[in-house]
Each structure stands twice: as structure tokens, then as C-alpha cells.
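Limitations
The C-alpha cells in this dataset are predictions for the assembled complex, not deposited experimental models. Users should treat interface geometry with appropriate caution, especially where small molecules or nucleic acid strands are included. An illustrative entry is reproduced here so readers can see what is and is not provided.
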Amino acid sequence: MKHKSKINIENLIELASFEVSEEEKKQLENELDEFLAYAHVIDNAPCGDMTPSSHAVEKEAYMREDEISAWDKVEKIMGNSPVTEGQSYLVPPQKTTAVMLDDENEESEKPYDGELEPVIGLEVHARLKTKSKLFCSCSTQFGDEANSNACPVCSGQPGVLPVLNREAVNMAIIAGLAVGCTVNKHSVFARKNYFYPDLPKGYQISQFEEPVCSGGGVDIEIDGKVKTVRLNRIHMEEDAGKMVHVGAPGIWGAKASAVDFNRCSVPLIEIVTEPDLSSPEEAREYVTMLRAVLVSLGICDGNMEEGSLKCDANVSVRPVGSKKLGVKVEIKNMNSFKAIERALDFEIVRLKKMKQKGIRIKQETRGWDESGQKTYSMRGKEESQDYRYFPDPDLLPVVLTDEWINSLKDRVTESPLNGKKKCIDNYSFSENEARLFMVNPSYSEYFEKVLQYYDNPRALANWFFSEILSQTGGDMGSIHITPDDLAEFLKRIDKGEISGKIGKDVLKKAFTEKKGLVEIIENENLKQETDTGVIEKIIDEIIEKNPSQVAEYKSGKTKLLGFFVGETMKASQGKANPKIVNEILREKLK
Ligand code: ADP
Ligand code: MG
Ligand code: ZN
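Predicted assembly:
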């Protein structure tokens, strides 16, 4: 159907101040006709089966390198804030969470008196060790002055655009490869909308329907039995800011809360298990193993006190033998391994009691109260639709190639359980020693470095587990003794140049004075005395000074040898070679 233009073309030309020929006028008229005809077609088009999409043309996300660039002064960023305290923004106290809710409105159901078993699934958030944030180039440094690492992007100013950090994506892929996930070649960032003062944008950028990794599993070992805890997914997301409550130790009774945006948009991965864990002990062991994996990969520092690793626990109970899952509750705010185990212990008892009494369990989010050692109701559990998830239109999909994924494979380290087995088989560690290495990847990292210069792992282990660990308190990150220095020190002990006793003193001194081991041995002339002439002279003096002991020894009290050895060692300031001392003493006291 031909649609006739109703617009007076003369007027149009006049209005637009066009200068056109007769021919051009004709052409314009035709084009306008076609345009209006098409508009008419669209007008009548059926659109019931069209699915809306956020990206008309799908392209790949643009990514930036992991580099820091400071944006501006704190004062400028805080310029619009009405109330501040120190370097933080002040917000009123949170009414909704300012009370511990009572367990009220109990609905009843038929009491259950059979045996019940717990079912647990964990969601672990791990902070990635990138230098800069997930979508901007602010520093991720923990503990910096409040709001000194914030910019218009991470503090949620209008009109800014997020740009994805490539290294954060790399780290998420590495985590996925290490635990046998499928790395998805196409994943999408979504907005999770909710309101809270630590979330300046009003939404968290996370992944929802299309996470970066799917499937996989983490092996845990309990009483020598290995169990694979299946993973559901690993997705990337940004962290929220930090709130410090003013006027009270926690949120309860606080007059206000001070908000620090430094943590906003720090990259996290969330690792979600299937409901595969069947005891608090297994849950604790799973987090221990997962931490070991992430720390040894070098992608997370695993510090639970600083919140680098956080865990939400989902738990339900069901009749033993039943395949159906019970109604779950989610527990938050546990910030140690012990807290995870305790909170679950508490909650399982509570849920079982409810079942036995015939009180209906409702899905909710509960908090762990560390001082009261109990869980409390925080809010009814929100469903995913409450967050109005949708793909973030500012970020294009993350598109990965095989080449990219494969190039990260050499950053994947050995699994913790394999590492543990290696310690037992190759280094003759005890089970306990091997476990210590497994849960503290920094130990094995240092140990392996020393072994590049020294080839007796068992001798090294003896020094490591007693002296080194007690001096460092287990914090291997701050050790000043270089692996080759420690190796050289051990070689000198093996050669008998210094005694074990002096070695211990040297080590202590090295730590208190922050000096090198070989440096101390050389400077203080601590080399062991092996010259028989010198040792003989010392022994002669001792024998002369102790005639009665000599007589007793000669009359059969040979136990006194220890006394003479001790005196000789003392006189030589511990430097005499004990083997030579023993030989000479036996000879002289005959
Ligand atoms: P939500 O949408 O509430 O976060 P998910 O299905 O994403 O729930 O599961 C979150 C976590 O809870 C997962 O680790 C999952 O294994 C675990 N989970 C789900 N249902 C149960 C249940 N009935 N009992 C125990 N854990 C569960
Ligand atoms: Mg969830
Ligand atoms: Zn920023």
C-alpha cells in the first residue's frame, strides 16, 4: 500500500532553510513517503514474541591492565558529603538491622521424632590480590586511610563507565582451572540491586545467569577419607564499602555509621558449593582446603581477620535417608574457621529441636553472634527476584578464547592434597607436619626455595618446625633470612663447623638483630673447635680442677662422663666438637 505524505514539503524546506533544486525536492518527497510507509509497518508489527536484550549487537568487553592510578584528593571526593567524621562519611544508624529479631510468629507442623541429618552448602567470597580495583584503577590496598582509594567510578557518581580489570578475570579463570571447573567462554556481568549505605551505586556488579566458571569440585580429607565437594559455580563480583559504627562496638546502639569507600569495587570471586557437606567439621575442612588452594595460587591472601575470605553457610536438616532437601537458613558474619564450625553446630541443634517440637522452619538469613555464641534472625531470606538482576548495560560480555584460558594453565599450582602426599613420600614428614604445610602454603613455598640450595629435606624440616616457626610465629611473609643463607647455615652444621647448640643461638640472634646467619657465624667467630690439641688443653685443666670426680669416675661411677663433657663444653663456650670431647675424655680418664 502506497502511503501518501501528508507533510507539506514546501514548508519543510522552508523551515530547514534548505536550498534545493526541483529534482532534489522530488527525491526528498519520495524518501519521506518511504520513511512514513515504513513507520506505518512498524506501527502494525506484532511484537509479542520479541525478547528484549540489553545489547543490540554483542561485542566483547574491553579490559584494562591491572595498574593503579590515583584519581583525586580525598577532600574532593568527599566534597558533597553533608556530614563527615575524620575521613569517613557519616550516615544515620540502620533501623532495619539495628535490632536482633526474635524468633516469633511460630507456625506449627507435625512433630518429627525420627533421626535427622544436616545438609550444608557454602558460599565463600575471596578477595583477589590484584593491585587495582575491578572496574577502576584505584588501589586495593587494605588498611589505607579511609576514602583515600576512591574515584567517581567506584563511589558511584553519575555518568561514569566501569572498565574491567583483565588480571581479575585471569585470577578467576586460574581459580576455576585449579578446582576443575568448566571455564565459560561467555560470561555476563549483572546488576544486583539493593540499597545500603556501603553501596554507593545502589547496585552491586556481579555475575548471575552466566558466571565465569561452572562445576568443578574441591577434595577434602577427613580421617584419611577423601571426599569431593562439588562446586556449583565461581563468579566474579565487586566488594562493597566498609562501615564503622559510631558510638557502639557494633551496629546495635550506634548513633551513626562511618562509611569508607576504599573497599568498594575491590574484586572478589564467589565460590558456591552444591549442598554436599554433611557436618560442621566437613564445612570447616572445606574452607580450610579452599583457602589453601587460593593462597597457593597466589590469587588471595586468605586473611580471614581482614575479611579476605568470607563464608556464608546454608544449612537445613532432613530425615536420615531422605533425598529431599529441607528448608534452609543462611548464616552470615562468621569470621574464623572456629566460628563457622560453632555457628553450624548451634544452628543444626536449633533446627533439629524445631523439627522435633513441630515448629515450621522458615527460610531466613541469620547472623552469628560471636560474644553470645548463638545465631539470631536478621531478615527473611530475599529471593533472587528481590534483587531485580539484569545484565549491566555498561559492561559487554566477557568473551574468552581457548588460547587465553590455556595461557593461564602454568599459573595453576599443585593441589593441596597432592602437596601433602609429596611431603610425606619425598620429605618423610609426619602426618601432622604435612598437614601444617598443606594449610600454610607460605611454609612450603619457603621450604622449597631452601631446598634449591640444600638437599636434606628432613634436616631442614627439623630446623623449620622447631626454630624457624617459633621465631616467625608462622608468619613466613616477614622472614628476613634468605633461603640461600639458611641453606649455607645448615651445611655448616652438617660439616660440624658449628654445633647444633650454637646454631640455635645464632638463629635466635639473627631474628632479634635482623642479621644474616652466615654473617653472625663469621663475625663472631663461632666456628666449632675441632682442633684436638686445643680441646686436650681444656680437658687437662678440667681434670686438674676436679680430682674427687676423677677418683669417683675411676672407681666405676662412669656416669660422671656427662659432667666432664658439660664442663668442657662450658669452658669452650659451646664451641668444642662434642664427638672429639667424648673421645679425648674417655681416653684420659681410663
Ligand atoms: P540462594 O539463591 O538462596 O542463594 P542457592 O541455590 O544459590 O540459594 O544456594 C546457595 C547455597 O546454599 C549453595 O551453596 C547451595 O548448595 C546451598 N543450599 C541450597 N539449598 C540448600 C538446602 N536446602 N540446604 C542446605 N544448603 C542448601
Ligand atoms: Mg546465593
Ligand atoms: Zn575507583
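Some entries come with short summary sentences. For this one: The longest strand covers residues 225-238.
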